[in-house]
Automatic annotation (TrEMBL):
Gene Ontology MF annotations: ATP binding
Keyword field: ATP-binding, Nucleotide-binding
All copies of domain AAA, residue ranges: 8-82
Superkingdom: Bacteria
Organism annotation: Alcanivorax profundi
Record-linked InterPro entries: AAA_14 (IPR041682)
High-level lineage: Bacteria, Pseudomonadati, Pseudomonadota, Gammaproteobacteria, Oceanospirillales
Protein name in the entry: ATP-binding protein
Length: 86
């Protein structure tokens, strides 16, 4: 059951966008997002919604590693222009 909902918009929040780096470490990224938003990110209890992900190539690349390295975290990514980026 989801207890926490964290919504970030990479277009409107450039400070959050900068947390996605070429050195992909999704657990560190989640810790940084949690510190920035003040909302805990707890595996199995948090839904992380990443909006406008198309503005961050590193963000797009990190999706694979969310699945591989942090599979118990619920993640949704969306982008209004994502099809043009891919």
């Amino acid at each position: 059951m989801v207890k926490y909902f964290v919504e970030v918009n990479l277009e409107r929040q450039p400070s959050i966008r900068q947390l996605f780096t070429k050195d992909i470490d999704v657990k560190r990224t989640c810790e940084d997002i949690s510190a920035s938003t003040g909302i805990p990110i707890v595996a199995g209890k948090t839904l992380l919604f990443i909006d406008e992900i198309q503005v961050s190539q590193e963000g797009i690349m990190s999706l694979r590693y969310f699945k591989e390295d942090y599979p118990e975290l619920h993640v949704i990514a969306a982008g209004s222009l994502l099809e043009f980026t891919l």
